[in-house]
Every structure is written in structure tokens, then in C-alpha cells.
Specification:
Layout lengths: L2 E2 L2 E2 L1 H27 L1 H8 L3 H27 L4 H19 L5 H16 L2 H9 L4 H11 L2 H20 L1 H22 L20 H10 L1 H32 L3 H30 L5 H23 L2 H15 L3 H10 L6 H35 L3 H7 L1 H16 L2 H10 L1
Antiparallel strand pairs: 1-2
Length: 425
């Protein structure tokens, strides 16, 4: 990796992007492995769908959100690489402890630890990448970073399902923890901290706004407010459908844990990877002439998820899997473009903080309520619908996708003026 003057060259930027992508893959894997073992955990601890939703969604999201804002603010002031190293080590260790839980409360506490650790991983990574890639390429770079989502999901689905079926759910957690501990050593030994604001020639580096000043600036950027609202609703859908898909296919279509794990891994490895990378490339290409097109593309992708979710939960087994694959492609488009645009809508010293703010709101309300709402609605419908209750609870998420699309359209109305305001500062 070549360095000049303590900052990364183009080759160094690519290496840093690769390592950060692998780090986030561990984040996704350690979070999503839980979805593959919900059923055996439910049977061993005798839990309801509402309790499973609490375990996989609300409690995790609350502590993720509580830790995220102060950690994000700190990342705008301290060495970001070192922060990622500490947080990666923490969440990997807590994932291992999840496999040692003897009851529901112990497992809940371990997952809280995972959430706190993961809260400090994303914001500094976003800020580092924004110092390595200019705004015109930022959506593509961050979409490449977010290839970690389908990659980590693929590993957790296939590996977690297979390990859970053959060795038990505890070993699935223990296996998921190992890559993160190894990667922590690679990160601290081979990646350097990029110079803040190097893409902008150092502009805005000296300014150190407080969290309050950043919040006031965010609220004054109307397009950014709508982007945060749209992201939160998008995460509600993606988290809710993602958490319950394996259980849906097992209960409704008779898949085994290993069978649905392999199927979901194959889908994620194809349509998930394509949707994530194509989203960044397409939005950067369309946005060259008019930044409103970035928001319009995101609105179109989220509007498309509504009929795809309907097909996923209502159609027979083979068609259901096909609609699941199409849904994954459409729902993965948003990752890079959303975070890239949010980074561009604030000044240099606000980048990690805005990432933390987006994560706080989207995880607290999106992750926290998405999984929980579907679980509670399934419990409510169970007396009348029996095993079909989860199907119709998931169907309700389709309407939320349309709501998210509306906010992306509203963001397009002021995005050009808001970007110009940042450039002027």
C-alpha cells in the first residue's frame, strides 16, 4: 500500500475500502446469524414471536442507537481506524458470548453488547471513505463498501443455517465471531488513518462543531431530513423482512434451516450483490447532470419493493423464492447512494456524526420497530390465522416501502440547493 505524506494514494484508498468492507461484513454476519437460529432458540427457551422480535430488533436497536451518537461524535475528533479496531474486537467477543448464553436474559445481554460494539463501526468508516473518494464517486465507493451487506448475509445464511442444523445454534454464534477477531489484527497493522478533508484540500478541517451545532445544521437541510426519514422507513422494511424471511420459509413452505440458509445465501450472493453495486454505479451516473435523479432513483427502487413483498409472501413456494430474489435486488439499491448523499450534505467535521445520526434514527425506529412490529402483529393474528399469521404480518411492510419512496421524492425538491450550501461553506 503506497503512502504519500501520511495520506492514502489511489491504490491505498482501494485497499482501505477493501478492509473496511470486510470489517462491515463481520458486522452484518454477526448481526444476521441470529435470524438463522431464531427457530431453535425459540424451541429451547420457549419464546413467543414477540420475544424473538425483541431479541432481534428493539433491544438491540435501542442500545445501538444510544451508543451510536456519542461514538459518532467522537469519531469526528479521534483516530477513526483505532475506534473501528476497538469496536470490532468488542462486537466479535460479544457474538461469541451469545453462543454461551444459558437463558433468554443472558442472550439478550450479549446481543446488547454486540449492538454497542457495532454502533462504533459504521460512522468512522463512512468518514474515512469520504476523505478518500470525491462526491462524484462517493455513491459508488460506499456501495462497494456496502457489498459487505450481501456478503455478510450470504455467509451468515449459508454457514449459520448449516452449522445450526448439524452442530446446534450455539456453534453458529461462535463460528461467526472468529473472522472479526482475525480481521481486527489485520486492520490495526495494515490500515492508516487518512487525512481529514483531503478531498476538499483540507477545507473545513479546523472547524469542530458540537453535536448540537451539527443537529441544527442537519435540521436546516430539508433534503437531508427527508433522506433520514426515508432511510428509517427503508430500514424498517429491510430489517423486518430480513429478520423473518427464514422463519417464514420454514413455517410456510417447509424448508429446513440448512435448506433455506443455502437458498437465501445464493440469492444474496447474486441479486443482493448486483443490486448493491448497481445502485451506486447507476446513481452516480444519473446524478452527474442533476442530483435530483439520485433521489428519484431511490424512490423508484423502494416503490418497487411493495409488489415484490406481496409476491414473496402470497405466492406458492417456487414463485415466492423468485420474488424474494427480486425483492433483495431492489431493496439493496439504497445502501451506497443514501449514505453517500448524506455525507455530501454536511461539512467535513460532521461526517461521522451524521452517519451516527442516520444510524441512530434508522436503527432505533427502523431496526427496532421493523422486526418487533412484524413479530407482534404475527402474534396478534395467530389466533385467527394460525401458522399463516407471519405471512400477513410481513405483507404489511409493503405499505411502509411506499411511504419511504414518498420521502425520497420530497428530498429531491431541495437537494441541489442544500448541496450548494455545503459547497459554499
Amino acid at each position: 500500500m503506497h503512502k504519500q505524506g501520511g495520506t492514502a494514494t489511489t491504490q491505498g484508498a482501494g485497499y482501505t475500502l477493501l478492509i473496511l468492507m470486510l470489517v462491515y461484513s463481520c458486522n452484518v454476519m454477526d448481526r444476521n446469524v441470529l435470524t438463522m437460529v431464531l427457530e431453535p432458540i425459540r424451541r429451547e427457551f420457549v419464546l413467543s414471536d414477540g420475544q424473538l422480535g425483541l431479541l432481534s430488533g428493539l433491544v438491540f436497536a435501542i442500545f445501538y442507537a444510544i451508543a451510536g451518537l456519542p461514538l459518532g461524535a467522537a469519531a469526528d475528533r479521534v483516530n477513526r481506524r483505532n475506534m473501528i479496531f476497538v469496536c470490532l474486537t468488542l462486537w466479535s467477543a460479544m457474538t461469541a458470548l451469545s453462543g454461551m448464553a444459558g437463558n433468554f436474559l443472558q442472550l439478550l445481554l450479549a446481543r446488547i453488547g454486540v449492538g454497542i460494539g457495532e454502533a462504533g463501526g459504521g460512522p468512522p468508516a463512512m468518514a474515512m471513505l469520504s476523505d478518500l473518494y470525491p462526491a462524484r464517486r462517493r455513491a459508488t465507493a460506499i456501495s462497494t463498501f456496502y457489498l459487505a451487506s450481501p456478503l455478510g448475509s450470504m455467509i451468515s445464511f449459508a454457514g449459520g443455517g448449516w452449522i445450526a442444523q448439524h452442530y446446534g445454534w450455539r456453534w453458529a454464534f461462535l463460528a461467526a465471531a472468529v473472522p472479526g477477531l482475525i480481521l481486527a489484527a489485520v486492520l490495526i497493522l495494515t490500515v492508516r488513518e487518512p487525512m481529514r478533508g483531503q478531498i476538499e484540500g483540507g477545507a473545513g478541517v479546523e472547524a469542530r462543531p458540537t453535536v448540537g451545532e451539527t443537529l441544527r445544521f442537519v435540521l436546516s437541510q430539508r433534503s437531508l431530513v427527508h433522506m433520514i426519514a426515508a432511510t428509517t422507513l427503508t430500514v424498517f422494511v429491510v430489517s423486518g423482512i430480513g429478520t423473518w424471511s427464514a422463519s417464514f420459509f420454514i413455517r410456510t413452505h417447509g424448508f429446513t434451516p440448512a435448506g433455506i440458509g443455502a437458498t437465501m445465501a445464493a440469492v444474496t450472493a447474486t441479486t443482493g450483490l448486483v443490486g448493491t453495486l448497481a445502485g451506486g454505479l447507476l446513481v452516480d451516473w444519473l446524478g452527474r447532470g442533476d442530483d435530483r435523479r439520485r433521489c428519484w432513483t431511490l424512490a423508484a427502487s423502494m416503490a418497487l419493493t411493495a409488489p415484490l413483498i406481496a409476491g414473496l409472501v402470497l405466492l406458492p413456494r417456487e414463485l415466492s423464492v423468485g420474488f424474494y430474489a427480486a425483492y433483495i435486488m431492489a431493496s439493496f439499491v439504497w445502501y451506497g447512494p443514501v449514505h453517500g448523499l448524506c455525507q455530501s450534505l454536511v461539512t467535513v467535521r460532521m461526517r461521522a456524526t451524521i452517519s451516527a445520526i442516520v444510524n441512530l434514527v434508522s436503527n432505533l425506529l427502523g431496526v427496532g420497530l421493523g422486526s418487533q412490529a412484524i413479530g407482534l402483529l404475527s402474534d396478534r393474528l395467530a389466533p385467527d390465522l394460525g401458522a399463516q399469521s407471519l405471512r400477513y404480518a410481513m405483507l404489511a411492510a409493503a405499505l411502509v416501502g411506499l411511504w419511504a419512496a414518498a420521502h425520497f421524492l420530497l428530498a429531491a425538491r431541495t437537494v441541489r440547493a442544500d448541496l450548494a450550501r455545503v459547497a459554499a461553506q
